[in-house]
Structure formats: C-alpha cells, structure tokens
Amino acid sequence: MLNDAHITDIVTSAIIDLLGDLHDEHDDIPLDATFAEVGLNSLMLARLVIALETEVGVDPFTGDRSIVDVHTVRELVAVYAEVAGDEQSAALAR
Amino acid sequence: MSAVTTGAAPRVALVSGASRGLGLAVAERLLAAGWSVGTFSRSSTDELDKVLENWPDTFSWTPGDVAKDDMRQHVRTLQERFGPVDALVNNAGVLHQELFLTMPEQRIDELLAVNLAGPARLAQACARQMSVRGRGVILNVSSINSLRGFRGVAAYAAAKAGLDGLTRSLARELGPAGIRVNSLVPGYFETAMTSQVTDENRVRITRRTPLGRLGTTDEIARVATFLLSDEAAFITGQTITVDGGLTC
Ligand SMILES: NC(=O)c1ccc[n+]([C@@H]2O[C@H](COP(=O)([O-])OP(=O)(O)OC[C@H]3O[C@@H](n4cnc5c(N)ncnc54)[C@H](OP(=O)(O)O)[C@@H]3O)[C@@H](O)[C@H]2O)c1
C-alpha cells in the first residue's frame, strides 16, 4: 500500500534524480517550494511526471487534471496520493 | 545504408501503418540497416507477412487503429519486445476524396482523427519515452496537400497542415530534450492510396511536375531514412518536400 509518506519519498527522490548535479546532497527538497524554486523548469517537470508514471504506476494528468494547475511539491504529492488511493480502492473493490 | 546506421548500436523504430506502401518500404530499409521495427495497422497484408517472415526477430506487427487505440499501450508493447523507442515514423494515414460541401460530418471527424489527432497522441506517447533518455527522432509523414490547395481533399489537407504545425512546435519543445522532429512532405507516389487517382488527374499531375512523373515509394522512403539517421542530426522543425518539383 502506498501511503502519503511513501509517495512523498518517491516524488522527492525522483526530483533529486532529475536535478542531478544541480542538487546539493545536504539539502532536503522543501515541500512548499514552487517547482521553479526547487530548480525544475517546465521540461524537467514534464520529465518528472513521466518518471513518476513508471514509479507510481499511474499518470494523473491524462484526463481533466492538468500539471499547470499544480504549483508546489506538496500539491504534486497530494495529486499522486489521491490517484494512488483511487487505484487502491478500485483494486479492493475488484 | 550506412547513413541509417552511423555510429550507433541497433536501434528501435515504431512505424505506424507499415502493412504496405511507404510505411512498409521505410520499415524494410530500417530492418536491412539493423534496426528493430514495430508497426501496427488495422489489417495485415500478404506483403507484410513476407517481410515478417524475412525478419522474424526484429520486425513485429500488431493489429491497431491510430484513431482509436491507446497509443501509450502500443509504445509499451514495442518497448517490451525490442526496448525503448528511438524513432517514430508517423506514417499511417487515409485519403478520402470528396467535395467538402457534401462530405458527411462524421467523415470529416474520421479524417482528422486518423491523420492528425491519432498521430499527435502517438507522437506524445513516443516523445515521453524518448525524453527520459534524452534522445530520439520523430518523422511526421505529411503531404503536399498541406502546402497547396487541391479540390476534394480539404479535411485531409487540414489534418496534414496540422501535422506540419505540430512538427514545428514540437521541434521547439523537444529540441532541448535531444529529440528532433520533422515533416516529410511527399508529392504523389504510386501506392494503394494513389490507385484512386483518376487517369485524367494523373496526366495533369505529371504535366505540372517539372520532373515529368510521379515518384516511387523508394524515393520517398530513402529521404525518410535519411531524416531518421545521424546524417540529419542538425535538421529539426523542417518540412522536407519530395515532389519532383510540383510545388516549386
Ligand atoms: N501515396 C501518395 O501519393 C502520398 C502522397 C502524400 C502523402 N502520403 C502519405 O504517406 C503516408 C503513407 O501513405 P501510402 O501511400 O503508403 O498509403 P497506403 O498504401 O494506403 O498505406 C497506408 C497505411 O496506413 C495504415 N492505416 C490507415 N488507416 C489506419 C488507422 N486508422 N490506424 C492504423 N493504420 C492505418 C494502412 O493499413 P490499414 O488500412 O490496414 O489500417 C496502411 O498500412 C500517409 O500518411 C499518406 O497520407 C502519400
């Protein structure tokens, strides 16, 4: 079961991977920072969503929801927590 | 064939609509150059079966409809068989000739779905995978109908012009991710698609073409494989017309 803490870990590790040398290994990723403040440009953000589809197993941005409405790392974690929760409820119902 | 293979390990291409015509010719050239190639189309053909027999380990076909299927699933299927995609040839297309004034609305929707919306979704599915590895090449097969007006092909022409717009904007967006995007813009060449061109129109086309004839499928396929190759490493965002001079 993916809980919120686990999803936060997955998202922040994926961000650190993407930032590569741009990330200072002693710093945590601040959850309330905007993507620009964290150092992610729009292309890197797109690549983050693609990487998370592999990690989490879902892409929340295929329907009505758009990445442009998500501004901070915490908001992004919340979106994945929501869709992962939906997937799990659906799996339990089957 | 060296142009397609320069400096690289075997590569993986997805060529939509390679059951016959241009798609099959491009697939064969890539296979001969050592690539692995996946394709899908709504139905198979005898010529496709022959090529599948010749390249059992590196060529695969699945039934599929570019207008209706989940394109990400097609890309995943290809990846499971051959590995991540290096090149997409957005080739599947249909031409239907009819005056726009009398064309059923549903036909307009279908032409836009097969020739524009589906290819755009396929380009997205491939670009997502390519962007992870920071390299790739997308070739959209357009048509000279996107450049010049012709009677009876308005919806097809609109879709192909849309594809050229997609090419230019995607080249800007994906260049920084190491992905090149171009449009190949063929004039008329002999395939099942042009078998519906009347003799009268064929004579007219030939007369208006400086080189005085229709193209061959191989002449178009050669340019396609060049654009996919590293020889074309600095070409992106372009529409490359191959039409014997018809639009000059
Ligand atoms: N021939 C010309 O003179 C000419 C000129 C300019 C541009 N073009 C363009 O060149 C490309 C190739 O044309 P061609 O002459 O080789 O045509 P073709 O011989 O008719 O081949 C078209 C291919 O696309 C496939 N296809 C059609 N609709 C599809 C769908 N909904 N989903 C998946 N596959 C589909 C066909 O298979 P199924 O029907 O079994 O699905 C076939 O494999 C097209 O994009 C065309 O617009 C051709």
Automatic annotation (TrEMBL), chain A:
Domain Carrier: 5-84
InterPro entries listed in its UniProt record: ACP-like_sf, PP-bd_ACP
Pfam families recorded: PP-binding
Protein name: Carrier domain-containing protein
From TrEMBL, chain B:
Keyword Oxidoreductase: yes
GO BP terms: monocarboxylic acid metabolic process
InterPro entries, alphabetized: KR_dom (IPR057326), NAD(P)-bd_dom_sf (IPR036291), Sc_DH/Rdtase_CS (IPR020904), SDR (IPR050259), SDR_fam (IPR002347)
Pfam families: adh_short_C2
Record key words, sorted: Oxidoreductase
A GO MF label: oxidoreductase activity
Domain spans labelled Ketoreductase: 11-187
Family: Belongs to the short-chain dehydrogenases/reductases (SDR) family.
The protein, known as: Beta-ketoacyl-ACP reductase
Organism, scientific name: Cellulomonas chitinilytica
